[in-house]
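B., you asked whether I could sanity-check this one before it goes into the benchmark set. Here's the sequence:
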Amino acid sequence: MTVNVLVDLFFFFVLDLGVPGLALGHAVSYWFASTVLLLLIRRRIGPIGGRRILASLVRILVAGLATAAVAWLVAEGFERWLGTTTIATQAAQVLGAVVAGLAVFVASAAALRIEEVGLVRRQIAARWR
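And here's what the prediction gave me:
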């Protein structure tokens, strides 16, 4: 929490990034906390398959970048096609971008064989049975 507050203040006031700086500060503090926790857990339980985790993270990053690109393109297309002056057109823009992004992520996850997505899919399917 301390890192989050300090980084938020730095990005917001010192670098004058405004609200986007707060989002960046949150991401930086989350990365910091994840790194510290990874080091602590490795100390306690030993090696945790770092190469396998890194390979998976790279595949997830590729799928995430494709997802972001498509969602952004769809959002831009909706803005040019419908405009975003009303709540209804804004909702259509967001819904279209989310649906397109989700479709690209699922397709990318299948193509890249991201096993964590399969695990989540199986857990969701088990809940509905």
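One thing to flag: Residues 1-48 form one domain. Otherwise nothing jumped out at me.
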